[in-house]
Structures are given as structure tokens and as C-alpha cells.
Design a protein that fits this description.
Helix content is 13%, strand content 42%. It is mainly β. The protein has a single domain, classed as Lipoprotein localisation LolA/LolB/LppX (outer membrane lipoprotein receptor (LolB), chain A, Clam). It has a 12-stranded mixed beta sheet. A hairpin with a 5-residue loop joins strand 9 (168-176) and strand 10. The longest helix is centred in the N-terminal third of the chain and has 16 residues, at 35-50. It is globular. Residues 1-32 have low confidence and may be disordered.
Length: 231
């Protein structure tokens, strides 16, 4: 499904759903740190993540499609509320959104005139643990995490799901050294395509309403279901 979506416009890569959700580009490794430092950073990220009942952040996204020699850019706002609710609302491409309501994933491209619906579990080709991505899991139990270095106030973490990577070649997180918020994300797939997302202006505990994560169909738009429906 992800391959079909990326033909037209960029959508959030599956890991994002790390706050998520969610991988840093352009930061060189300063050398592996000692195990105590690595554990401190991982624990700091977990605590920062666990403390976020909800958050809102701006994002800027760029996908380099190696096979097509093209670059796709997008930006907007990301809304997250645990467990399992997310909304990527795009300012560019205007009107586009990706919504997760805890059970299903919805993707809307205005020029297509339809919303694609898929159960969350079948929306990802990899075995990236959904429990962590949806706000109910543990980083160390569900990923092999290594600290690659520190540069310009950012820790660089490499995440490998404890299972098959599916279509992914590399997953990296850029984590703020003071707040332990995720600053940026980078995913390189097996074909060499790279998706980079940078986050800015994160606000936690904003009191997001559940209604924000309910599907509101644009007028005249149909829902096309992909995969088995969720119960």
C-alpha cells in the first residue's frame, strides 16, 4: 500500500509513527558512547515519550526517490494522542491528511477524490512493533537501540525492530540532548529511498480532543477499503 501512496505525494513513513513517533539525516557519528551513556539516553527518550499524553508539532518532510531521481517535499502539523491516535495534516500538499484512529489508517489525497482505509496492522509491510508506535509499548523491549554519537546538541540513535525489518534498510532518530524530544527522523528503505522528517515547536499536554481523530469525510469523497476490515 505504501508503494501506491508514494507514487503521487509523500505520506508519513511507517516509523513516525514514532514520536513517534518516529530519524536524523546530516549528523555524523561522534563515535559510540559507553553503555551507561547509551542507557541514559534510551531511558530519557522513553520517559519523554511516556510523559506525552498528547502533543502537537510542526513537521517538514522530504523524500528522495532514488529509482525515480525525484525529490518530494511536504509540510504541516502532526497531532498525537495516546493510545494509537494520530493526524498528519498537510499544508502542502494542501488538504492532504493521514489519520490513525487507533484501529484504522486513513489516507486522503485531494486530487484522487478518495480516502484509502486500511487496518493499522496491515498498513505496514514491516514487523515494526505497533504497540510502541501506538503509545503503549517499551522501546528497549521492542527495538535493538544503539547510540551512534552526539553532535550539535542531538543524540543519534539507530533503531532495529526485534524481528524482520520488512522494506527498511535503516532507521535513525535524532533526539534533543536536553529535552529528549525527537527532533528529526530518517528512514532509508531497501531500495535506497530516503524519507527525512524534521519536527519543530513541539507542545505537550495540549488537551487534544478525541473528536480530532475521527474521520471527517470531505464532501463527495468515497472511502476505498484496503485489506481486511478492523473489528
Amino acid at each position: 500500500m505504501r508503494e501506491n501512496w508514494n507514487r503521487k505525494r509523500p505520506g508519513p513513513p511507517p516509523l513516525l509513527w514514532l514520536p513517534v513517533w518516529l530519524l536524523l539525516c546530516g549528523v555524523s557519528s561522534a563515535g559510540a558512547s559507553d553503555p551507561q551513556e547509551e542507557a541514559r539516553v534510551i531511558d530519557g527518550l522513553q520517559k519523554s515519550y511516556d510523559s506525552a499524553v498528547d502533543f502537537v508539532t510542526d513537521f517538514r518532510q522530504e523524500t528522495e526517490l532514488k529509482t525515480l531521481a525525484r525529490s518530494l517535499k511536504a509540510h504541516g502539523k502532526l497531532y498525537f494522542k495516546r493510545p494509537g491516535r494520530m493526524l498528519w495534516r498537510y499544508d502542502e500538499p494542501k488538504g492532504q491528511f493521514v489519520l490513525a484512529d487507533g484501529k484504522n489508517l486513513y489516507y486522503y489525497q485531494p486530487e484522487q477524490g478518495q480516502v484509502l482505509k486500511s487496518p493499522l496492522k496491515s498498513a505496514f509491510r514491516s514487523d515494526i512493533p505497533l504497540s510502541f508506535l501506538l503509545g503503549i509499548g517499551n522501546l528497549k523491549k521492542e527495538f535493538k537501540v544503539s547510540l551512534k554519537g552526539l553532535e550539535q546538541g542531538l543524540y543519534l540513535l539507530r533503531l532495529e525492530p526485534r524481528g524482520e525489518l520488512g522494506g527498511f534498510g535503516e532507521i535513525l532518530l535524532g533526539v534533543d540532548a536536553e529535552s529528549f524530544n525527537i527532533h528529526s527522523s530518517r528512514i532509508r528503505d531497501a531500495a535506497g529511498n530516503v524519507t527525512m522528517i524534521r519536527f519543530a515547536g513541539m507542545r505537550k499536554g495540549t488537551g487534544l480532543k478525541d473528536s480530532l481523530f475521527r474521520l471527517q469525510l470531505p464532501e463527495g469523497v468515497d472511502v476505498v477499503e484496503l485489506g481486511a476490515p478492523s473489528r
